[in-house]
């Protein structure tokens, strides 16, 4: 947690109790993609709040309009199964669907990917070793620890058991530092999964709805997933996530519908409606392309790596001390960035002003130069 007590936000700024303003490049870990307190989006939620805020096991017009709006933004071969309250809940739903559809109990995930913090979702990636382990879940190594060929070799060995229901993968790591494998890797992953009757679950909760450029990243990587998970940017930070299914996967168990108290919540539906409408209004593709071009000018040397897609920027400094220097320099100049280990994450909202974007690029360049100078022999 940052040492800030925030009282309000407006677009790309957060305001503290003592009146200071910080440019927010964390954006609630990428969720607030159209800026804080976006009045155009808020108006949808407020209007719905005046109508009805929650009604379980009933169908409302706002739900139908939300699903129609999502359908206009996604591939024709996918459909929205349901909305939920968090990404973790969407992942849990995907687990149930995959196991039911394949009549298998095994799950494969990759380390450094992130799918949630429940016992089951943590078992997909093996992040928290203090949690109880699920024997049928396998966690395979991933970039940058091993090569793509080694990953694929271990994947084929795992799938040879015939017990794996699904493979979960992020097209670009969020918490893991922005690594993404090659197109050839993802195509081979797709092939071996199809040949073994294993479903591919693509977690686009971080990357989806234009954070990394296009609406989804998986088509550019050659992935044809059976299940796609959405969240974060789709509702501009309002608690909402979703599960998209390809044709043939339409899970409706007779004894238990995959729903919860707040699934398909009308307020979440309104937030999604408002967010998608605002993305269309501002020309989201052009805005994200503009941000990417600005961030691409950041100078990097032999000891630095820039992993950049759309408005998702990761700077690998190689050392924790270097990353800490950059993070602290930005913080001292009223810019909030995310630091995890040796990596700095810059995830601005698509609505960041040109003035603030230029300021961020300049300050980050200064911080990187200082880090390189300190690391020089």
What would you say this structure looks like, in words?
This protein is 37% helix and 18% strand. The protein folds into two domains: 6-30 and 283-375, Aspartate Aminotransferase, domain 1 (Alpha-Beta Complex), CATH 3.90.1150; 40-281, Aspartate Aminotransferase, domain 2 (3-Layer(aba) Sandwich). The two termini are 33 Å apart. With 377 residues, it is of the alpha/beta class. The mean pLDDT is 93. The strands form three sheets. The protein has a seven-stranded mixed beta sheet, sandwiched between helices. The protein has a four-stranded mixed beta sheet with strand order 1-2-3-13. The chain has a four-stranded antiparallel beta sheet with strand order 11-12-15-14, covered by helices on one side. It has helices spanning 27-30, 39-49, 61-73, 87-102, 119-125, 148-159, 183-195, 266-282, 284-295, 320-332, 354-375; strands spanning 6-10, 13-16, 21-24, 79-84, 106-110, 137-140, 164-169, 199-203, 227-230, 241-245, 305-309, 312-316, 335-336, 338-340, 343-346. The chain contains eleven helices and 15 strands.
Strand order in space, largest sheet:
4-10-9-8-7-5-6
According to CATH, the fold-level topology of the largest domain is: Aspartate Aminotransferase, domain 2
Q: State the domain count.
A: 2
CATH C-level label of the largest domain: Alpha Beta
CATH architecture field of the largest domain: 3-Layer(aba) Sandwich
Distance between the termini: 33 Å
> How many H/I helical runs?
11
């Amino acid at each position: 947690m940052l040492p800030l007590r925030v009282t309000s936000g407006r677009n790309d700024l957060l305001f503290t109790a003592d009146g200071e303003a910080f440019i927010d490049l964390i954006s609630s870990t990428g969720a607030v993609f159209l800026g804080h307190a976006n009045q155009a989006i808020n108006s949808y939620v407020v209007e719905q709040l005046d109508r009805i805020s929650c009604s379980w096991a009933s169908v409302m017009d706002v739900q139908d309009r939300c699903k129609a709006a999502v359908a206009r933004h996604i591939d024709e071969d996918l459909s929205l199964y349901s909305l939920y309250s968090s990404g973790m809940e969407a992942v849990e739903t995907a687990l149930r669907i995959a196991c039911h559809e394949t009549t298998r109990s095994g799950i494969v995930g990759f380390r450094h990917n992130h799918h949630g913090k429940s016992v089951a979702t943590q078992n997909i990636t093996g992040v928290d070793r203090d949690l109880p382990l699920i024997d049928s879940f396998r966690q395979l190594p991933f970039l940058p620890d091993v090569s793509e060929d080694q990953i694929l070799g271990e994947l084929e060995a795992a799938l040879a058991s015939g017990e794996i229901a699904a493979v979960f993968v992020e097209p670009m790591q969020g918490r893991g530092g922005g690594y993404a494998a090659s197109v050839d890797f993802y195509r081979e992953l797709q092939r071996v999964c199809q040949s073994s009757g294993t479903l591919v679950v693509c977690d686009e909760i971080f990357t989806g709805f234009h954070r990394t450029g296009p609406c989804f990243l998986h088509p550019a990587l050659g992935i044809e997933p059976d299940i796609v998970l959405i969240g974060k940017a789709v509702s501009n930070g309002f608690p909402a996530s979703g599960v998209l299914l390809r044709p043939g996967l339409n899970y409706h168990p007779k004894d238990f519908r995959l729903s919860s108290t707040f699934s398909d919540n009308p307020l979440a539906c309104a937030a999604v409606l408002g967010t998608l409408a605002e993305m269309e209004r501002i020309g989201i593709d052009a805005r994200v392309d503009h941000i990417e071009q600005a961030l691409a000018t950041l100078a990097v040397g032999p000891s630095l790596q820039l992993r950049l897609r759309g408005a998702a920027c990761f700077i690998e400094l190689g050392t924790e001390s270097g990353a800490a220097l950059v993070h602290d320099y930005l913080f001292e100049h009223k810019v909030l960035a995310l630091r995890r280990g040796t990596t700095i994450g810059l995830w601005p909202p698509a609505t960041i002003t040109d003035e603030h974007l230029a300021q961020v690029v300049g300050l980050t360049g200064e911080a990187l130069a200082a880090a390189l100078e300190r690391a020089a022999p």
